[in-house]
Structures are given as C-alpha cells and as structure tokens.
From TrEMBL:
Its EC number is 6.1.1.-. One of its GO terms (biological process) is glutamyl-tRNA aminoacylation. One of its GO terms (cellular component) is cytosol. PROSITE patterns: AA_TRNA_LIGASE_I. The keyword Metal-binding applies. Belongs to the class-I aminoacyl-tRNA synthetase family. It comes from Ectorhizobium quercum. It comes from the Bacteria. Pfam families: tRNA-synt_1c. This is tRNA glutamyl-Q(34) synthetase GluQRS.
Length: 294
C-alpha cells in the first residue's frame, strides 16, 4: 500500500465554492470525516477556488456554514487554492522545462472546427476523453518553439497542456493506484493516455483542477483521497502527474454518487437538494445522514 509506516492518516474534503453544497457533497464530507475518525487520522478542508470567475467569498462562507451545521470540524488553517497560485506555477514550470508541457492557443470553437473537419475527412469519430470532451488536436504540440514564443510575445491567450505522448514515455513501468471505493477495487492500472493533452493551466485561471489537486494533496500530506466516483477516471491523470513531479501516492476511495430524481448526478444549479434548502425545510443533520445512506 502507498501509505507510509507510522504516519497518521490524513483525509481531506475539497469543495469548490461555486455554488451551495448539496447531498452529494454531504456524503463526501461526512465520509471523509467518519473515515478519518475511524482511522485515528486527521481531517482537513481545502477550498478549491482556482476558478475565480465562479467562486466567491460569500459562497466559501456558506460552504463553511453548511459543513459546521452538519457537525463537522477540521484543522485550521484551511488551505485556499487561490492563495497558492505560485506553487502550481512552479509545478507547471518544472514540467515545461522538461518538455512535458506546452502552450496551447486553440479556443473551444477552434477545437470543434478542427475536429469536425478531421471527422468529415476520416469518416470516423475523433477520440473523446472519459468526460466526453474532444481530445486536444496535435496542432500546438507540433508547433516549433520559435512560433510558440512569438505567439506568446504577441499576447495571444493560451493555456498550458501536458504533452501526453512524451509524458507517458517518462514513468518507469506502468502506473497503478490502490482503490477501496464503491466501484472497481484493488490495484487499478491507470491509463492517462485516454485524457490526451489535458489542461494544466487554463487561459482564464493560473492552474487547472488536475495540477492543483496533486500539488496540494502532496503538500498537505494527504494519505487518503476520498471523493465521488465521477473523479475515478481523473485519477489516471493524477497518478501520472504525481509520478512526473516526484510526489507521493495516496490511497484512493471513490464513493457512490447521490443521484437526483432524474437519475443524474446532482448539480449545484439544482437548488432543491442543497443543504441550505433542506435545512430551511426543517431537516436536521441526522436526517441528512439518513438521506445519504450513512
Ligand atoms: N473540487 C472538486 C469538486 O468539488 C473535488 C476534487 C477532489 O476531491 O479531488 O468536485
């Protein structure tokens, strides 16, 4: 197992304050809290607010209130990702210096157009990643360094992406992770290539979820990542980044998702299952635990 001997287990709940917490978040938060308590471990809260256009201080405050209402408490200080953009930048610079990351200039519209033309010509679908998004075309990866520099010097908006072909040639041996959750369990083989040239730093934010989550899990000494099954596939990418950056490997536990009446994953935009709405209806924290099957 990845866990190091004699170390107190460290768990974390890592919400993004871009809406009110719902029952799915309650499951994740309570499960982390309960598992930490059962293991005699520590429980941390991390605010994942790299998307500064959607995350607000008021929503962050509401997240803390909802979690306190549920009866949870956590160690202080709380790590807020927007306070640590320099740490993510340093990780990106390291990957770029090793030739494993490159600046990418295509907009969503450019990608759609390029893929559409490719599909018309080749009469088969261009590959999609596990979330269903089109893999990033090879256009910018093949761009000569001089052109990249000129475009950046020109002030062209760009993201940074992993050069997946080079990155997967890097790790020594196959990548795996230990999984104990509600889907597949045991030693899982990671297949990061299915994500293509994933984003490491966005054009509108100085990092991406994938990069900041692995940097923070390592910096905070997280030994157990407990989160929803919707992030199971992303673990492939996280294991690759951990390997490239020389970061330790946590154990993973991806839990079942709470589905809405329509059978779909709950979303923050549907207020009816928000903890705030349920509380206003008179539900108690114990009712919430029953509703989420704990
Ligand atoms: N911030 C992510 C979310 O709210 C969770 C990330 C994680 O647990 O790795 O979905």
């Amino acid at each position: 197992m990845p866990q190091r001997a004699c170390q107190r287990p460290v768990f974390r709940f890592a919400p993004s304050p871009n809406g009110r917490l719902h029952l799915g978040h309650a499951l994740s938060a309570c499960l982390n809290f309960d598992m930490a308590a059962a293991a005699g471990g520590r429980f941390l809260l991390r605010i994942e607010d790299i998307d500064q256009s959607r995350c607000t201080p008021a929503l962050e405050q509401a997240v803390l209130e909802d979690l306190h209402w549920l009866g949870l408490d956590w160690e202080l200080p709380v790590r807020r990702q927007s306070d640590h953009f320099d740490a993510y930048r340093a990780a990106l610079d390291r990957l770029a210096a090793e030739g494993l990351a490159y600046p990418s200039f295509m907009t969503r519209g450019d990608i759609r157009t390029w893929v559409g033309a490719w599909e018309d010509q080749n009469r088969r679908p261009w590959p999609r990643d596990p979330d269903g998004a089109r893999l990033y075309p090879p256009v910018d990866r093949q761009r000569p360094e001089s052109e990249r520099r000129a475009l950046m010097a020109d002030g062209r908006r760009h993201a940074w992406r992993i050069d997946m072909e080079r990155a997967i040639a890097h790790p020594a041996g196959p990548l795996t992770f230990h999984e104990s959750g509600d889907g597949q369990t045991g030693l899982i083989r990671a297949e990061p290539a299915r994500w293509g040239d994933a984003v490491l730093s966005r054009s509108d934010a100085p990092s991406s979820y994938h990069l900041s989550v692995v940097v923070d899990d390592a910096l905070q000494g997280i030994t157990h990542v407990v989160r929803g099954l919707d992030l199971f596939a992303a673990t492939d990418l996280h294991r690759l980044l951990q390997s490239l950056l020389g970061l330790p490997e946590p154990a993973y536990h991806h839990h079942r998702l709470i589905l809405g009446a329509d059978g779909r994953k709950l979303s923050k935009s549907d207020g009816s299952t928000s903890l705030a709405a349920l509380r206003a209806e008179g539900r108690t924290p114990s009712d919430i635990r029953v509703m989420i099957g704990l």
